[in-house]
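Minutes, project check-in
Item: structure for the 412-residue chain
Input as provided by the requester:
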Amino acid sequence: MTGAAVKGGDGAFNPRLIFGLIAAGVFGFIGFWVLTAFAPELSSGRDGGGHAMSRAANGYAGVAQLLRTGGHDVTILRDPDGGAPGFSGGDGLTILTPTPSTSGDALRERLASIHTPVLIILPKYQVEPIMQRDKVRQAGLSQNAAALATALVPGRVRANLVPIRQGRAVALDFWDGTKASVRMGDLIQTVESPYFSTLVAADNQVILAEVQDRYDTTILAEPDLVNNLALADNARARAGFALIDKLAGAGAPIAFDVTLNGLGASRHNLLRQAFVPPFLGLTLCVIVATLFLLWQGFVRFGPPLLAMRVRAAGKAGLVQTSARLIVQAGASVRFAPRYAQMVRDIAARRLHAPQGLDEAALGAWLDRFSDRRGRKFSELAGALDQKGSTLAAVDAAQKLAEWRKDVVRDTG
């Protein structure tokens, strides 16, 4: 029973098992932070947001698929420095879908890195997700459309919500003379600014405008013309497809940007920067150094140190312990004269000094004997009688012990 218990206890602390647990913990910790750093880029995007990966009513996954069917090379852009792939300088389009919480500075920063024609679809609804995936409900209307448009021009921009009588078709006038009649919702979002040129009007209200002094930058104020909700009506879906197709060019590449929706790489994500060049090398060095430190702490270098005895055994141990107590008590100086007296008595007895001599006469008689260095007893004993430091007393006692060894032939 006892042997089995001991064997089981040893197995519970098997070094290989402990090392495996530590390694799993380390790699799990590193993997967690790597996935956290790249989580926006790895997300499926099915969060009910207003972007090209969302299948909610306010998303644009439907029109992206419709454009693919219509012959366009449609990609989802997660690179904060990229534009429509395959752009050759003539055709191509990058579509931005800012959220109601996107700032004007973020929009300008994103536009600065794009070198293709751009379509900005302004937000219209403030929505909140519900329990089902890609399901949202309207929580209000966005108040950010005008602010986003104002970030592109030096003057002020007005965003209006024009009511539409239920069931009435809205007439759309395109810049190339094409016309369409579609049924919209209860409200149409429009924009007004002297810095905009009208491209598409709905009942004489501007819903698609080109920004002056900005190369091929257009703003779509009414997202209900191209979002997933628009696919419920064939006429509206055709009008939305025609709008984007005319802006991009027939068969041109189109990219839906999702970085403004928090689904792409970010220059401001410091954690992500640690796992991409040029800082990836430094991160790997830190990880390897940490693993070596763990290995050094796990593996024993050399035999274990045995615990020292508090008190040494035997006569030598008794002497050492007594000496430590004398030093700790600071009584070394008081013990020095006693040591000199002990050496004088031992020397008188061994050298057969005359009887009846006092201390001074006995010291003078012992001065007849010198050690190998010519030192006499009186001068060495006198050094012990002087009040000094502990180190000085120990040094004087050592010299007197050498005299005793040479003259008396006694090692104590």
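Outcome recorded: Residues 1-9 have pLDDT under 50 and may be disordered.
No further action items on this chain.
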